[in-house]
Amino acid sequence: MTATRSPWATALLFILLTLGGGLLIGSVSMPDAWFASLVKPSFQPPNWLFGPVWSVLYILIGIAGARLFMKASSSPAMKLWWMQLVLNFLWSPAFFALHMPGTALAIVALLWITLVALIRAAFPVDRPAALLLVPYLLWVSFATLLNGAIVMLN
């Protein structure tokens, strides 16, 4: 990406990266019979909820990434943004494709830590970008609890 790219084009590229990447990874690591056989906690949301929630979150993540990229492309906040994306994209294959909920729990715990660090690092660079990541942190907090419960119940 170049410095002359418009903010809208940059935002669109980041949204396509996050939303497209999330949809691609989700499509190749869908819940299967193994997942259906697991004992789930009482607070497990219905499966249909995850797609819409993640779609909205990926858009917010993409906008936050674009804002950080345009303000400080080589900042610690931007490095943490890339790190969270890698961890995010690793979780579904670890859990659903490899059937390794313990490994997935470690990944989501690292993701949570990375998100907290990212929000803290992003706040002085671009406050709206940091705030756009708060719903993501809340959902990852819930996902960590859910993943941990599944590990404990199985």
Automatic annotation (TrEMBL):
Q: Can you supply a Gene Ontology BP term from the record?
A: tetrapyrrole metabolic process
Identify the stretch annotated as signal peptide in this record.
none
Coiled-coil positions are none
- Cellular compartments annotated: Membrane
Q: Cite the entry's keywords alphabetically.
A: Membrane, Transmembrane, Transmembrane helix
Q: What InterPro entries does the database record attribute to this sequence? A: TspO/MBR-related_sf, TspO_MBR
Q: What is its main location?
A: membrane
Q: How does it sit in the membrane?
A: Multi-pass membrane protein
Tell me which family the UniProt entry assigns to this protein: Belongs to the TspO/BZRP family.
- This protein is called Tryptophan-rich sensory protein
What organism does the record attribute this protein to?
Answer: Gellertiella hungarica
The organism's lineage is:
Bacteria, Pseudomonadati, Pseudomonadota, Alphaproteobacteria, Hyphomicrobiales
